[in-house]
Amino acid sequence: MARKMGSHSEITGPRIRAAALKLFARHGFAAVSMRQIAAEVGVQAGALYLYTPDKETLLFDLLKEHMDELLAAWRAEPRGTAPLARLEAFVRFHIRHNLDRPDAVFLSYMELRNLGPANFAAIEALRRDYEDQLEAILRDGAIAGTFAAPDTKIATLAIIAMLTGVTTWYREGGRLSRDRVGDIYWDMVRRAVCA
Asked: Between 9-27 and 55-76, two packed helices, what is the crossing angle to 10 degrees?
């Protein structure tokens, strides 16, 4: 199928991904059709297949893009060398980064089940990579005698779940600023793991 005159892949492709992200987050992956995504973008349904072979691939691409951005941003984040400073940097980074991406975060946790085995394994590997970053901080802190978490893997999963939950309730302009939320969560995490 030929692309319509005036159509630009560098414009239409991102618009398709943005529409899919919004619709998947609002209605759920299973409830959204390719026709709905096309209507949101303002193109014919068949035009979507110029940009993605199927709906699962579109979901996979959204999840992978989110995890790639998260990992790259964390690796670029300035942080100290001591475990306590690194843990504080992680807490504040995770909240700050994800508050700007609530739909992507929601998809990452709620729609992973809609991926086939190969795609699921690829996203899980990226998630493990991110979790390993935090677990390494907790292990280093335990070795240094700074942290006393009895199981660093469970502590890692609990901390990430707690931090990620902010995206479900935080509203810009509400009672607490982003910085204040970061302060409160940092205090809770610190109290939970410090010796």
From this structure: 100
Same-domain status, 108 and 25: no
Write out the two tokens for 163: 């931090």
Cβ 13 vs Cβ 61: under 8 Å: no
Range of 66's domain? 55-193
CB-based contacts of 132, cutoff 8 Å, min separation 6: none
Say whether both 43 and 61 belong to one domain: no
Tokens of 132: 């390993």
- In the block, residue with structure tokens 């009672």: 175
CA distance 58 to 55: 5
Burial track 119-129 (b if 16+ CB lie within 10 A, e otherwise): beeebeebbee
pLDDT in tens, the chain (195 residues): 444 444 566 778 899 999 999 999 999 999 999 999 999 999 988 888 889 999 999 999 999 999 999 999 999 999 889 999 999 999 999 999 999 999 999 999 899 999 999 999 999 999 999 999 999 999 999 999 999 988 999 999 999 999 999 999 999 999 999 999 999 999 999 999 997
79 alpha carbon, distance to own chain's centre? 20
Domain finish residue from 34, 52, 70 = 52
Query: Number of folded domains in the chain?
Result: 2
